[in-house]
Design brief:
Chains: A alpha/beta, B alpha+beta, C alpha/beta
Strand content of chain C: 15-25%
Oligomer: heterotrimer
Structural class of chain B: alpha+beta
Strand order of the largest sheet of chain C: 3-1-4-5-7-6-8-9
Helix content of chain B: 10-25%
CATH topology of the domain at 25-85 in chain B: Alpha-Beta Plaits
CATH superfamily of chain C: Thiamin diphosphate (ThDP)-binding fold, Pyr/PP domains
Number of strands of chain B: 3
Order of helices and strands of chain C: HEHEEHEHHEHEHEHHEEHHHH
CATH topology of chain C: Rossmann fold
Strand order of the largest sheet of chain B: 2-3
CATH class of chain C: Alpha Beta
Low-confidence stretches of chain C: none
Mean pLDDT of chain B: 94
Number of helices of chain C: 13
Shape of chain C: globular
Largest sheet of chain B: 2 strands, antiparallel
Amino acid sequence: MRVLETGNHFVALAVRSAGVEVVPAYPITPQTQVIEKIADLIAEGEMEAEYIPVESEHSACAALISASLTGVRAFSATASHGLVYMHEMLHYAAGIRVPVVMANINRALGPGWNIWCDHQDAISQRDTGWLQVFVSSHQEIVDTVIQAFLVTENRDVLLPMMVNLDAFVLSHTYMDAEVPSPEEVKRYLPPYRPRWRLDTRLPVTHGSVVYPVDFSETRESMKEGQENAREIIREAAKGYEEMFGRWHGDLVEEYRVEDARHLILAMGSAAAECRVAVDSLREEGHSVGLLRVRFFRPFPVEEIRRLCQDRDDLLVMDRNYSYGLSGALYSEVKGVLYGRTNIPVRNLIMGLGGRDVTHQLIERMAVKAWKGELDDITWADSHSTKSHEITKEMLGRFEEMLD
Amino acid sequence: MDKNEKKVGYMTSMSKPGKGCAGDTGEWRVFKPVKDEEKCNHCLLCWIFCPEATITKDIEIDYQYCKGCGICAVECPTGAITMVKEEKQ
Amino acid sequence: MVSFKSLPEEELFLAGSTACQGCPASLALRIAFKALGSNTILLVVASCTSVLQGSYPHSAINLPLMNAAFATGGATASGVVAGIKALVKRGELEEEPTVLMWAGDGGTYDIGIQALSGAAERETDFIYVCYNNEMYSNTGTQRSGATPIGAWTTTTPGGKVQHRKDIAQIMIAHRIPYVATASLAYPLDFYQKMLKAREIRGTKYIELLAPCPPGWKFPSSKMIEVSRMAVQCGMWLLYEHEDGENRFTGATKRMIEGKVKKKPVVDYLEVQGRFKQVLASPEGKEAERMLEEDVSESIRRLHGWVPEYI
C-alpha cells in the first residue's frame, strides 16, 4: 500500500503491520502523532492491540518491559526528555533481555527548552545495551521498524532496539512511501516466540539479586547479543530486500564512496543533506563520498575500518556533543581506527537544537577541512546573534548590582 | 579476531524456586523451639504465624530451616513450645 | 466461615529463605499466597522482598515472579495485565492469572506513588499489596513517608517531626473498588481480604503493617505481639473500603463498637526501641499526645466521629 503520510504516522503504520500487541506510551512533542495514530487505529478496529495510557515515560518503559515478559510483541515511542526520563528503565529492558522496539524522535534536551531536532537524547543512552539505528527517510522508517522486530527477537540477540528518526525533518513532514500489509509482513516476520515468559505452568524468578560471582557473565552475554546483532542486522536487511525490494543499507549505507579520496560520515536526516553536498562537490571536481552510519549500536566497526582506511581524510558530522571531549560519532570513529591509519579525522558539530543543516554549509566546511583550515573539532554553525547581546546586557546589569 | 572463543551465550538473572535458597537456615538458630506433645492442642497458631513456613499443619518443625525466631513459642496459647538454647560444637 | 483448618497446606513461599528471623514480609507473602493460589503472577519492586527471596540462581518463591525497578509498581502491573489480555485474545490462556504487585512503604508512599496512582486511575485489574514497615528497612532503616511522628530512624536521629501520610485514604480518593488494611496478628482477616480482592475486577489496594524486628528494635519473637498491640492501641486500624463505604473489621471493629477497650498508645511505643529516645526526652509526653491525637483523627476520618469511650 503506497500512502502519503508523516514520518510519525509511518511509524504507527509499520507497528500495525508488525503485529504489535501492546503499546504503553506517554505523549511528548514531537512523538505525539505516533501514539495518536496508534490509538486511532486501535479505536477504529484496524489494529488489535492493548494501548496503555501511562502517566510518565518511566512507566511507559516499565510497562513495555513487563508486557513483553508475558510473551507478547510490545512497542513504545518517545523523544528527548521522555527518553532521558526512561534512562533507568532502558538499562532494565536490556538487562532483563526483552526484545522490544521503541521509536525515538530525536529532539534536543533542555534547558533552554527546545523541541527541535538534535541527537543528544539518543546519544546519551549509548551505554544502556539498546541497539540504536538512525534512519534518514520516510520509507526507511517503515522498513526499519519492521526489520527491528526480526533483529531484536532473534534468539542470539534478545536486546531492545531504538529506532531513531529526526524531529520534524522526518517526524512531521509528509512523503509517500510503501507500507507492507500485516499479511505480507507475517511472511517476513514470524509470530513472536519468547525464549521464556511469566508463566504459571513453569514458575521462575526473574531479575534476582546476582552476586559478583555471576554478574559479569550476565553482562558479557549482553555484549555477545550486541556482537551477534551485526550479522543478524545484515541478514534482516538482505532478507527484506529480497522480499520487498527495498534497501537502505545495513549497519552503514554507502553513497559514492568507491573512488572517493575524502569521506563524510553522518547519521540521520543530515546524511540526506550530505548526499546533496557530495553530488555538488563532485560536480566541482572533488573526490568525495558519504558513509551514512545507520547503527550507532552495535557500532559498524568492520565497515568503518574497511571503508575508511585508504582515504585522504574523514569529516565526521555530529548532531550531539559529549562535553569535555568531542562529538560522539567522531570519538567512536577515531577509536575504531586507532593504530590502523594516520589520516586526519575532523569533527563538525552542527544542527543542534534544530538549526537547519544545509548542504551549502556542509560543502563550505568540507572544502575548508580539505585545505587544512579547520580545527579538529569545529562548531560549524555557531556564531554570535542579536539575542546573545541582550543576555550580555542583562548579565552586565547583574554585575553592577553585585558591585 | 576473537582470541577468546569461549562464549557465555544467552544468560539472564533467572532463578529456580526451591527450599533452602539461603542454605540450611537452621544453622542461624541460637534458640530452638521444642514442642511438648502433651500440651499441644493443635490450634494451628504456630503453623499460621511461622514466617519461614517451617511448621507443618501436623505441627512438625523443620529444623533444617527453622531460624529460631521464637514467634511460635510466644504465640502458643498452651505453652506447648519452649525455646531451648542450641548446643553447638 | 474461614478457619485455620480450612487454609491450604501448600506452601508457595519455600522455607530456607534469606529473610531475617521473624520477618513480617515473608509471613505476609506466605499468607497472601495461600489466599491467591498458584495461578498468580507475582511482581516485586525493589524492597526487602527483592532480597529475602534468595539470590541467583535460587528462589524461595514458587510463582512466576518478576522483580521490577523501585518506582514502577503500578506501571509494571499494567504491562503484565495488558500482556495477559493480548494472550487471551490469541486464545493462549484459559484461566487468567491473578496479578499481585508487592511493594514496601518506600515503593508505595514515596518513589512509587505516581505509578501506583496511574495504574489505579487506569483501573488496572490487579492487587497491590503494600507491606508497610514504616521505614526503608532494606537500605538500613531510613525515614519514609510512612514513618510515624517521633520514630527514630537513621535519617531522623532525633525522632521524626512530621506526620505520616495516609496513603490508604489517597487510594480511596481514586475510587478504586477495594481498599483494605490488615495486620499479621489477625491472619484470617488478612486472608479473607486477599480472597475478596481476588474476586473483584479493577485495582485493589491492601496495606499491611509489617513490624520489622531489627528496624523497630524489638526481639523477633515479638513480631506478632507488636502487630497486635498496634491494632489494640488504634495506631493501626483494620478496615475495608468498598462501594464508597468504610467498614471496620476484626479487632478494630470490636474496639470502635466498645466491645473491647482501646489500649494506650504508650504501651505499644514502649515495646519498641525506635520510640525510646523521644519518650525519654522532655517532649516525650507531647509526642505521646500527638500520636494519640493521630489515632483519634484517623478514626474520625473513617467513621465520622470518635466514640466517647475511646
